[in-house]
Amino acid sequence: MYANTVLDSQQRSHEGTLTDVLALQQPGSDAVSLEQLFAAGYTNCFMKALKSVAAEVPALIPAESSITADVVLDQNSASPALDVELSISLPGLDREVAAALIGEAHLACPYHEVAPGKVAVRTVLL
Asked: What CATH number belongs to 2-125?
């Protein structure tokens, strides 16, 4: 499992290796994996979708908001698939409003349509 956090629009991998994106990942290396890159793209895209949906309500996404994506490549099935959990923190925002915005952002984020049936996504409001 690999994790990536987006704080507003700044990317940070938990392993601190996101800057080395061009290296090929070898066992035991510090190179960035495809799962990490997917997590980085997804969290950034989801935050933009969340802000876009919130602007229509209007609601303000708190500056301290964060999204963490845990991405696992499931190679045990007949065809590889990704399992994604988005943990979303929207401190100070009413939970009902936050849950509604997350639902709308999930549909608005282009990653939602990346590979229907190949990417299982769960959203968790922290």
From this structure: 3.30.300.20
